[in-house]
Amino acid sequence: MACFSVDTVSRRQYTLQIKNLVTGEIYPDTVKNTTGSASWASDNKTLFYTKKDRVTLRSHKIKKHVLHTDVKKDEEVYHEEDDTFNTYVYKTKSRKYIVIGSSSTLTTEYRILEADNPNGEFRIFEPRSRGHEYSIAHFEDSFYILSNADGAENFKLLKTPISKTAKEHWEEVLPHRPSVLIEDIEIFKNHLVVEERENGLNRFRIMGWDQKEDYYIPFESETYTASIGNNPDLESDNLRYSFNSLTTPSSVIEYNLTTKVTEVKKEQEVLGGTFIKRITFPSEYG
Length: 286
Known about the structure:
Number of strands: 22
Largest sheet: 6 strands, antiparallel
Oligomer: single chain
Helix content: under 10%
Strand content: over 45%
């Protein structure tokens, strides 16, 4: 099964539909006025999605649809009543949890539910507190958390057991550093990748779960832009990211975390076929 969405009014009000990928049949299950994103539970018949307020277009409700049932009877599993917050739903990269997120400009909050228990009750990961921004990722028996708590304005990385998600149980993995911003993390079966920014430049820190490796992917350029791309496969050993510099066209690059081999998957075509580094200095100053 595949869930897809269509916006026919250009207001980001999407209609969700479901397609059988084997037969090509599009089922009559149709959900209107959504954000366009949805997440399947592990039973492959329960779908969680986000509804929008028809007037303000704020995403404010999470509902649950069971395949081949009346959409009008879909159960509301969460209602974000604070109009300064938006809500959304997704599945962790491990595919073990369905997560409901709520966010405002300065504050975030999450609720979690095992993906193989779609009829269960979502539970709060850590209650919202004004000014506390955090995000979560699951791996094996732990959740990994990026948090700006306790004055960590550049964020710090913590972990906690899956059964003890309250802040009092969080343990530090990477401390807050005044000169380094932790932007995001990417979890793989053998490695943790940390996306950092220092002196305006992004860099990727590779940490082995066995603690035998801890290094940064080397970039030869003195100035560049780089960002981690979409890496949905937990079992993969390949990190895909984008890179661009004064001597390198915009490129999509794949880095093998085990062999440390880099492969350019796509590169922007340069007029003339050759990318030449050229620095021109003015002949006069004034």
